[in-house]
Specification:
This protein has 215 residues and is mostly helical. The protein has helices at 2-6, 17-25, 44-55, 85-103, 110-119, 122-149, 152-168, 172-184, 190-214; strands at 32-36, 60-65, 77-80. The N and C termini lie far apart (55 Å).
């Protein structure tokens, strides 16, 4: 805990998993949760599932263990005990970069939309975005599948393709999130990154629907 505080993190400690969940239910919004896989009461994958539901997709869930060597479902990263300081810093740095890189990205590039509007009829623009978003939906399903199976290369390939199609229609936030996922792969925050992509697609749909109604 001292290491995290020295690096500028605000640290809140919980006695056990149940206490951590209670803190979240009472309004605590953690960016990162660091949990021991073996402790009294709710722990391990059960704790991760409950935390993911309570904290939402933006929190990184990190597990500490002295015995388990493989990835644990629902956790974004696994740290081996004794925990190495640089390993912790590396994991937290990845989380910080992802959050900072997405915070200021608008859903839609107005310049790209205006360029398309100048060369296409409204119905053509609507069809273009509908096709692009349907393709994004299909790729999200594949992202979840590859993430679940741990197929890193396949997941990165889908993220790369999504990044390219998002760039073509000026979906800036979607493009940025896909780029991040392409770099992260299945090593860290994979499920949370995909859920952010889902949110970005929904947000873009909402913007386009509003423009369609007002045109």
């Amino acid at each position: 805990m001292l290491l995290l505080q020295q690096d500028g993190w605000h640290v809140v400690e919980a006695e056990n998993g149940a206490a951590a969940l209670q803190m979240v239910k009472e309004g605590l919004e953690p960016h990162v949760v660091l949990a021991d896989l073996q402790m009294p009461g709710i722990c391990g994958q059960d704790l991760a599932v409950a935390l993911r539901e309570a904290c939402g997709p933006h929190a990184s869930l990190l597990a500490m263990t002295a015995t388990i060597k493989n990835e644990v479902p629902e956790y974004d990263a696994l740290l081996q005990k004794p925990v190495d300081a640089e390993a912790v810093r590396g994991v937290l740095s990845g989380h910080s970069q992802r959050m900072a890189g997405q915070a200021d990205k608008p859903a839609l590039s107005e310049a790209t939309y205006a360029k398309l509007a100048a060369s296409m009829r409204p119905d053509q623009i609507a069809s273009l975005y509908e096709f692009a978003l349907a393709d994004a939906d299909a790729r999200v399903k594949k992202l979840y599948m590859f993430a679940e199976k741990g197929q890193d290369a396949e997941l990165r390939a889908q993220a790369h393709a999504l990044k390219g199609s998002a760039a073509m229609i000026g979906a800036l936030r979607l493009q940025s999130l896909a780029s991040t996922l392409e770099g992260v792969g299945t090593s860290l925050d994979t499920r949370a990154a995909i859920e952010e992509i889902v949110e970005a697609i929904a947000r873009l749909r909402s913007i386009l629907a509003e423009r369609s109604r007002s045109s």
